[in-house]
Amino acid sequence: MKNINYQKIILSTIAITGLVGMAVLAPNALQSLKMFLPKKKGWSKEKYYMNNSVKTLLKKGLIKKVKKGSVEFIELTKKGREMISQYELEEIEIEKPKNWDKKWRVIIFDIPEKKKRLRELLRHNLDRLGFIKLQNSVWVLPYECEELIFLLKTNFFADEDVLYMEVNRIENEEWLKEVFGLTK
Q1: DSSP code per residue over 30-48
Q2: Which of 68, 136, 152, 164 has the most CB atoms less than 10 A away?
Q3: Where do transmembrane segments lie in this chain (predicted)?
Q4: Rounded mean pLDDT of 48-60?
Q5: Which tens digits make up the pLDDT trace of 75-102?
Q6: Which domains does the chain have, with CATH numbers?
């Protein structure tokens, strides 16, 4: 039970379906949990964890209640969409080709202080994906990653703040080649 991320399952369910009815949320989310849980009679513990997770997500501002007529729904907030994006990005990895095309992929960004959380998320993801930091807002990788950077920019709503470049040479690049194992 400890290894199941109920909040992630709930957020993912809402992200896929859009609005989710309050009365419908628990059964649908519990259906998606079946693949992660051992076969048991009853769902009392799972329902308890699911309900607590919904309350926690509401408190954290990741989801909000919306009333349409007499039916109450739950939908993702902007903060919740950012969290889903983070979950998705954690599963992505960059493929390393057999032969390097001798191009550097450089990411530069200028994210204002009011978006500090976004800036830190971006740095965390670039580091996790194997980029090397040249300066605080300048990161480099020798592998094709334009689509991934587009995804990062889109998911973090940072299209204007992040710039992707492909360059043929970086001054004093020998140390970078060593770090990436590109020297022969």
Answers
A1: HHHHTTTS---S--HHHHH
A2: 152
A3: 6-30
A4: 83
A5: 888 888 878 877 777 777 888 888 999 9
A6: 6-87 (1.10.10.10), 95-179 (3.30.70.240)
